[in-house]
Amino acid sequence: MTLIDVKKHHHLLPATPRVNKALIGGTWHESGEWMERSSPAHEIPVSKTVAGTAAMVDQAVAAARAAFDGTSWKRLYAGERAAILGKAAELIRARAEELALWDVLESGKPISQALDEVAGAADLWDYAAALTRTLTGESHNTLGPDTLAMVLHEPVGVVGIITPWNFPFLIISQKLPYALAAGCAVVMKPSEFTPSSTTILCEILAAAGLPDGVVNMVPGTGDPVGAALTAHGGVDMISFTGSTAVGKATVAASAGNLKKVSAELGGKNPAIVFADADLDEAADALVMGAVFNAGQCCVGSSRLLVEKPVAEAFTAKVVDLMTHLRVGDPLDEATQIGPIVNARQHHRIMQYIETGNRKARLRTQAPETAAQGLFVYPHVFDRVSPGMDLARDEIFGPVLSVIEFSGVDEAVRIANDTSYGLSSAVWTGSVDTALRMVRGIEAGTVWVNTYLEGPAELPFGGFKQSGLGRENGKAAIEEYTELKTVVLRTGPRPARYVQLR
Ligand code: NAD
Fold first, then answer.
1. Which SS3 state, helix, strand or coil, does residue 102 take?
2. Cα 353 to averaged position of ligand 1 atoms, centre (Å)
């Protein structure tokens, strides 16, 4: 493993912390309380953000409601809404380096990856812009001589959007453009660890011509801000991405006014390698899947299921590739693995590694001069059995657990032996094996002989406790709508209900 000097790029660090405020009805607000964020790689303060309050959530929901009920946004010609979203995509591209830099400074993700994420996010804004004109509903001219019917998509109303720290700009872009495309108004709350790129997005939207109040942002912690938003009677829908535990709390809090909830939650994703696979390709892709974003990735390949005859050889390949990874300063373009986002997550991962050391066999070794602080070197454990915590819990770090299996049936059984169902990957040279696995696996995505491909056109979401609803793809805009059925009688009704005596 190559170590990179974490001091080399200090000139990219801000001289003074960036200041982020709350945006309510088109104006920036302070609460008097601030949250300071330090770069997890460089351990110096990089941003200072307003700690939002429940009262601010009330004001932001009122501003969103006024913008929504004012009808000018929701009844705007779809082509005009599309133009604003398209302009936002253009401005995102123009400010890509700045957006990526802030995600690096606050989350610790490598700069090359952050730039890719911002480019992918801009594409989502373009895609949502195109979808804006597709909400055409249905017409029914087949219901008999005197009946005509329509099914209209109406925007669901005021949407609360809550996002996590692991892909700050990408995840807000999997939600916000679709909500806007549908004609909704929004109150968003970025993660308390990564508020800056979402704040810059507010500036971009204003410059793109979005009317004041259509998008509001209240930064802050889960409690009070997230909790106030999910429980708020003036919010019609919550779109949440984060942990399954908080996702469940969100669903419970939404019960007060029976909000619609869409939730993208955790995963314990199986990557299944059969003996007839291209083992070199599979090893490379699955190492990437295991360490991408330092393993803090909901679709990471954290469970490696390998068919017995090739288990030893394949694990050895994976371990060897891990030794070539570049761990270090996320501001260096060559870095592949940056630090863990914060001390709490770091501690949690180290506890899993400690338990793993007692119960399974560690195959990797950290270099003697391992970087200190919040960095975690990739760990591969084999001799993992499906009942161990290593095989069941979402560790959210660069920790890969190897489980051996024999044949398709056992592979399906182990793959599905989890409360999650977000993504999966199958590596095989056999079409039959691939299709039997595709049909057997309970997960929102099955990658076959590839990993982590996710173009805007394809829906994304989870089975079981990995979530509710889908993002991206054609249906993404429909998530933010309610159907309204309209039935028109064009002639006399068939019979009178009340018989006059
Ligand atoms: P988290 O659940 O701790 O926090 C997510 C967001 O919820 C943050 O903005 C947080 O402030 C807020 N929050 C916390 N408590 C809340 C409450 N009581 N009410 C409302 N909001 C509250 O998750 P995290 O640590 O930021 O992110 C990591 C988790 O996110 C992982 O479990 C990961 O799998 C999941 N994730 C899922 C996807 C997906 O698309 N399925 C994508 C990325 C991350």
1. helix
2. 22
CB of 272 sitting under 6 A from ligand 1: no
- Are the beta carbons of 252 and 287 closer than 8 angstroms? no
**pTM of this structure:** 0.97
Distances (CA, A) of 310 to 278, 314, 364: 11, 6, 18
What are the pLDDT digits (tens) for 141-193?
999 999 999 999 999 999 999 999 999 999 999 999 999 999 999 999 999 99
Q: Radius of gyration of the chain from Cα atoms?
A: 24
* Cα-to-chain-centroid distance, residue 241: 6
> Catalytic: which of 298, 394, 404, 471?
298
Mention every residue, 6+ apart, whose C-beta is less than 8 A from residue 152.
137, 483, 484, 485, 486
- Which residue stretches of the chain have pLDDT < 50? 1-3
User: Cβ neighbours of residue 19 under 8 Å, at least 6 residues apart?
Assistant: 47, 48, 49
Cα(87) to centroid of ligand 1, in Å? Answer: 29
Q: Ligand 1 centroid vs 460 CA: distance in angstroms? A: 17
